[in-house]
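We read letters as residues; the fold follows as tokens. A sample entry reads:
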Amino acid sequence: MATVGAHIISADLSPAYCRDTTPSSGKSKRNQILKRRLAVSNEQAQASTASRSTAATRSFAHNELEAETKRRVSVDEYCSEGNGKRLKDYFDEAERVIRSSSSDGGPPRWFSPLECGPHSPQSPLLLFLPGIDGVGLGLIRHHQRLGKIFDVWSLHIPVKDRTSFTGLVKLIETTVRSENCRSPKRPIYLVGESLGACLALAVASRNPRIDLVLVLSNPATSFSRSALQSTIPLLELMPSQITLSLSSILSLMTGNPLKMVMDNVVKGLSPQPTIEQLSQDLVAVSSYLPVLADILPKETLLWKLELLKAASAYANARLHAVKAQTLVLSSGKDQLLPSQEEGQRLTSALPKSQLRSFEDHGHFLFLEDGVDLVTIIKGASYYRRGKSLDYISDFMPPTATEFNELNEENRWMSVLMSPVMLSTLEDGKIVRGLSGIPSEGPVLLVGYHNLMGFEVHTMVPQFLIERKILLRGLTHPILFVDSKDGGLPDLGPYDKFRIMGAVPVSAVNFYKLMSSKSHALLYPGGMREAMHRKGEEYKLFWPETSEFVRTAATFGATIIPFGTVGEDDVAQIVLDVDDQMKIPFMKSQIEEWTKQYIKVRTGTEGEVGNQPIHFLFYLPKVPGRFYYYFGKPIETKGRKQELRDKKKAHELYLEIKSEVENCLAYLKEKRENDPYRNILARLIYQATHGFTSQVPTFEL
């Protein structure tokens, strides 16, 4: 890790380095690679000194890590995803860090937590810029997960340090410039909370040509509109011993503890573990009030409030110069700052920004339950190792926790619709389940897109549950960019699709998926089928050209045509696009959206290439049942030369289209003989056989 400044403090002074949760057999190597690297800096440090220190300190760790191959997480690698730390751990380690830094009286410094573990040489650098506490342990609950994909450094500002805001900016800037020179093709992440967010904005405004990614949690740019500013004169009159009530501390540390318990009850989980954890946090806060007093004694608190005032003014005056990609995280129950309103203001002011809101969380977002920084970054498609995001090589499969949380949201659909999935073996036999799907890729599933894409919500999870196959859906790019770039105004609801592997549909991304031997999901009819008109159920709207066949054949992909029926049993369209175009204000809105939003098939003629962007108005029905039929696999291995011929490729394209139509026809006919197509019949069956039992269907 780079040093910025004069000296390095030995490893035995802080638990941020000594605390190691790995097995004993792995500790030796980790301690060698990640020995304590606590660097100090001051405003007068020369850039040349910083560069020499950077090279000297990093050389050993870099050489040790050079031999490690690039880590690619497999779908079934469901190991421990976090370090399980809580508020108690934050207070324990904060106390030791404070004592350590107080003993030497040094200036602000960087440290790299041991528990972040060894990282890949390709991992981008992440600099954590702390909030008003200045300890640098605000990401303690995220260290292990972050350490798998980032080189994590945290900034520690000692309690008695009085470095000015501009001094802190120069310290961070020196590190950023040094590391950018060392790895110019990799982004540098600046994760800041409150004060740290202002520092990140300031550094970004001064370095527009450096590739920075900002993650700002409850930025203090709203300080002038907060109650904190009015407390400065009051604090000056108060005695040195400031008493903090337990209730006020809890209101800052946690957003809504009661709601957390109730959410678990609604999800069918036992509230006991959550109550126990909250009890531990209550005890931790009450027991560590002296630590809080050590972190923010009166003099330091007054200094930090003045620092916040200067930080807010500095950052706001330079927002126009910030060109970095920015993700703003806003809490709905922030008792210190008006974070929700500020998040909206910042995302409007910053050209490359997105907003994620956390309605039931407080100011210290990263210390709360239910917040996972890695998942947030993944969901926003903000993780990349190079100059631009590569949706295939930069993708990290969902962890067990991520999958379970997302699947929980769709559980009601699975319960209500009781999907029937059929696949075809190599000998042509139709079986229930997904055993006919090849395990080894590349595999391309090509099918009909149901109304609003209803079928995806149960199909993708079932592939992962039953076969441990992650389907990478080729999706309309509108779900990946915000309204500033021709996308949707609020991307938050679509984060789950990106976490589960959705990819913007393009020739380049399709090529990469096939070359990486993935299981890809493609709907040639795309939005035209998913947003179809009344009476167009199960009608294919495919382009005339064979877009995907030759690319699939290049890599010998197995193509599986499939059909899904059930949309007409769950919803009825009330207003389609033709109806809406007859209503003046709706027509103007559709025309505006269609002109504004990005298009997929700019060179395709007809209605498939000129699909208007609109919303469908539909009424839900008493749920019927969804049926999936995956046809016999079509092999392209060994046919690369043959399918280079456009005529031959088009013939195969028409064959696949015909097979999809046959799958749809088969299901439409067979479902008429399903005694459990009606939800009432299914509920009766499950009531007598258990609600986890598989409901029968028609005879195959």
Remarks:
- The two ends are 63 Å apart (CA to CA).
- The chain has 26 helices and 20 strands.
